[in-house]
Amino acid sequence: MLFDMGTRVHFALLFHVLDLDRCISTRYIPSLQMGTTLYLRNLPTRPHNRANYIRSFLSAINPTNRYVHDTTLLLPIHQISGTQAVPGPFLDETHRILSIARSNSGSMAGQCFVTFVDEHSAEQFMNAFQGMNFRGKRVEIRWAEQESLLGLALTQPERFKKVMRIKKLTMEEIVQNKVKRKLRRLRYKLRRKGLDPAQIEDIVAKVRVDVVDDEEVEETEGNATGMETVVQPTPKSNTTTSSTTKKVPKGIVDVTANPPAKLLLVQQLPETTTETQLRDVFDGPDLVDIRMVAIRRLAFVEYTSIESATAALQKTGTTFKMDAHDIVVGYAKS
Q1: Residue 105 and residue 55 share a domain
Q2: Does the CA dihedral 133-134-136-138 come out positive or negative?
Q3: Does residue 215 lie in a domain region?
Q4: Predicted confidence (pLDDT) per residue in 18-61, tens digit
Q5: Which domain of life is it from (predicted)?
């Protein structure tokens, strides 16, 4: 049966709509183009330790991988800072894998992103391991909707620089918005404690605006940690006011009063600090993750238990030297 041009166009559009509806109904929006980054889902959620998880995955795809055979080898680190990215060695030379990124958060559990050195390597991997069985799970592999920063740096360096500039601006905006919200809350609490407007503004003016993260301002709300000068609340009656001055090193969150926790806060890091350097200091069988906040020169080091974190803190002490810098370590606020 022959159709005229208008009819053929109509059917083509109809099939396109049906196909799009099928994609949406399965919650799968196909990537518009290939790249160096693959998205993997339906993965097991354990082990929680990042390094152990990566080694387990590498063992499933390449039992001869050197990081699988020698667990004393530190996993490679890729430096991404400012508008530059410096790739480290391969995680897996056979499949030309550069990095594997995953999260332990509930919404992202069972998912990861794998970055390859080029598009061809990523396509070969997807064809070879689509539907692979990984620790009892049938893994689904598809092109990532967005390139990883590392993949972007390798394939589109100019776009990578633009993204990093925007990312920096966005992060600064987020931090400033957090500061504003927390300071509003601080003003409210100080008003409830009976301080007059002049005293409140005097205290607020002494709070550092470049807050490291929520931890610092929450400490400020609770016991005025983070202020250079702390004024105690004035009683509502006309009794004599008293003030207490407490000096804290500028740029450091006072964590000495924090109770033991699984998370350590590492501060005053040199700007050139790498995750590899921190792993050399804090690595151990119970280490879960190290999250660096380079722009604030700090890192969070997470362990599986309070006991493990305490052992690590006892090993380093509350201060230690790194590249001639005094590094400050303590329990993060939980």
Answers
A1: yes
A2: negative
A3: yes
A4: 333 333 333 333 444 678 999 999 998 877 778 888 999 999 99
A5: Eukaryota
Domain boundary residue among 155, 175, 202?
A: 155
Do the Cβ atoms of 213 and 295 come closer than 8 Å? no
Q: How far apart are CA 128 and CA 323, in angstroms?
A: 45
User: 164 and 131, same structural domain?
Assistant: no
Report pTM.
Answer: 0.45
Residue range(s) defining the domain that contains residue 87: 31-155
E strand spans, 91-217: 97-102, 111-116, 133-134, 137-138, 140-143
As a whole number of angstroms, the distance between CA 107 and CA 201 comes to: 40
Give the 3-state DSSP-derived string for 90-125, with helices as H, strands as E and coil as C.
Answer: CCECCCCEEEEEECCCCCCCCEEEEEECCHHHHHHH
Report whether 139 contacts 41 (CB < 8 A).
yes
The answer to whether 154 touches 87, Cβ cutoff 8 Å, is: yes
Structurally, how many domains does the chain consist of?
A: 3
Q: State the Cα–Cα distance between residues 12 and 15, nearest whole angstrom.
A: 5
